[in-house]
Give the backbone structure.
Amino acid sequence: MTTTLRKSSRGICAIVLPDKSLWRNYASDVNSVIDLQRKSTILTQSCIISRLNKFDCYGIISLRKSAYPTKRTELYMITFDKASNVVKLTNGKIDYAVYINTEGYLETVYFGKAIRNFDPTTMRTAPKWHAETHVYDPAIGSERWFADGFKQNVAPLEISPHARRDKRGAPVICARENGSFATDFLYVSHRIFDGTEPLDGLPSVHGDNCQTVEFLLKERTRELYVKHRITIFDDCDIVVKNYTIVNKTGLDVTLSRAMSMQLDLPRNNYNLTHFSGRWAAERNAVTNKLVDGVQEVSSNLGATSAEESSFLYLADSGDTYTHGEVLGFNLVYSGNFKFRICSDMMKGTHITYGINDEDFAWVLADGESFVTPQAVVCYSADGIDGMSRNMHDFVRNHIVTYRHDREYKPVLFNSWEGCYFTFTTDSILSYIDDSEKIGAELFVLDDGWFGRRNDDLDGLGDWQINTDKIDLGKVIDHCHSKGIKFGIWFEPEMINFTSDLFKAHPDYALREDKEDVFLGRHQMHLDMTRDDVVDNIYNQMIAILDNYDIDYVKWDYNRRVYEHYSRHLGADRQGEVYHRLTLGYYKLLGRIAARYPDMMIEGCAGGGARFDLGTLCYCPQIWTSDESNPARRCTINYNTSFGYPLCTMGTHVNDCKLFDYRAKGQFALFGTYGYEMNPNKLTAEEIGMLNETAELYKRYHKDVVENGDLYHIADPSNGEYYIMQCVSKDKSTSLVLSMNLKCQKDCFRFVRLRGLQADKLYTNSHDGKAYYGDYYMNVGLNLSLDWHQEFECQLFVLEEVK
């Protein structure tokens, strides 16, 4: 049995065993667990077994001399067993195993809960019928049988061939010089390294507490290579996969498909849940049972969209929030995507995921490489919420890079819904004064401060201050004199045809000559495939950001890509437009984020359309939807939060009349929390309500909502009520949000909570009494005596009795 001494992501040493259950084998050798930073004993032998989860968070295990490892080794989670030819990735909770077969194909022999023994021979057993194991080999002029019973058309592969026996769908297609579409990659070598490496031109995951295996594969007939990477993390039950295609053929080649991953599973009794929608109604959950054939979930609008989210999951048909195997998927990418899933005749499941190949064709010159976005795959044996919380930790720990993300975030006030385009310097100053009365700590001046921007017909592309309308310096100084930070709105990727920029550079717009251009919000899309266009907008933006003390930028994107034609690219390169637009977005956004590392950038896309992991690599939060009415927004937030933590979900209080301001404030606490209304019209009573929730935000939000664990209790699609619960990581505090969607009376309602520590005593703000955690989780909060009014919110606070 092997032990490993390593440093964790918190900079503290820990002994790691291959399987968590093996701690029991060491119980008799345990003296104590030591916190290296505090130099104190925190666990003794008598409680080591019962409190292993707490031990996992910090400290080392101190063993008697006979049990102490004789050699200190580096972090290992990936091993290669030469005898079985298996590369195994494990973090003690999940395993991912790849077998390198005798034909040179990579077979996925296992992905799931960590297990003790591996028998690739048994794991590779495939159906006997409809599975060919032999070929005609022209080199020998006769049949050749595969040595180890390899069946290409049913084997679970890491990268299927194209135009060969396997017809389930290849993730990479690149035609040969003779016109054949056959693409068939075989194993050459592999390397294992600590950490992960950034991707050229694309956002990528980060973190030291992970390991990566990179397989080098070569196309069967030419010098075309794939570097296939899989990364596993010790703090999340997630693997990240992607391909890099390298051309060394001496010729230009064209990629007609370049997706990020393939995953084959030996069963198909899954339900697929994806999230579709439209403007102001994003991410409605749609669940379909897998049936024989192909299903696809995709976006072809130039970006991730309100129509389809890039996050989705597979669950066993009997799974619940707390039980069952669930696989979650996402993509570190903001452009067109396609998730393709095939349930085959052998009752297996074949998945490819990555860049949408609709209108995609990438010319790869000799010596060049094409890097695909990273695909994220989460495994949970603890139901849908287990998958969800893993995704949340992954986003917080390995996606978001904003240096102040774990710090307290100021209460935000946005001017948009209060005044839209109609404002003056004096009216904005009065907004700042009155927003201060409700606890605002960051004031954001939204659309309308630049160019001839008095409506949505003009101004985009002209990022100069409209000094006839606003004295920006005076506004900023007024904010800062009150200790309030200041933010401003941009929509950098768009242009109005009435703007000065369009008149000077009509070729900057993405369009064909002499062809009608469909407008979205009266605007066109800039040709972000061009470096000179990116440079122009970048220079305009920094002229503002360098000369004014700005703490925050809201980055909007209010239309989609319809005419994907660039006059900058030749006819043979038009299949590159969609992806190059996304690369241009990252280039501009990345340069701004790098130049102003202390400035928060919030993503937005006509609401929550471009809500994805690629954007979150630069923006720690994204506006979730333009629908802020809690009665409808609750479904959007509930479903968004399956894949993304609440700290990323922009949620504001507005002037919706269905709810009072206390209820709207309580609802917004389960998001980033902020305001968007005319503060001049608030009554004294309404100001008091908002101050109550602002105080709750300042007291609880950082530890419980932003960085805590989320539990989905009641889905608003039931039409009756919606309940979500957050628990701090140390399980000392919990917030429970309950909202009625219709009036109910004289009925039982016990709300069973989750995630509390069973033996901790908690007071609750509902009845003022104290109960142990197991009471709340098995009996629940008794709301049966309450008269449940329509559109009523209740927020309950549970705190540990110390």
In short: The CA atoms of residues 287 and 407 lie 37 Å apart. Residues 78-115+145-399 form a domain with the Beta-galactosidase; Chain A, domain 5 fold (CATH 2.70.98.60). The first helix runs from residue 52 to 55.
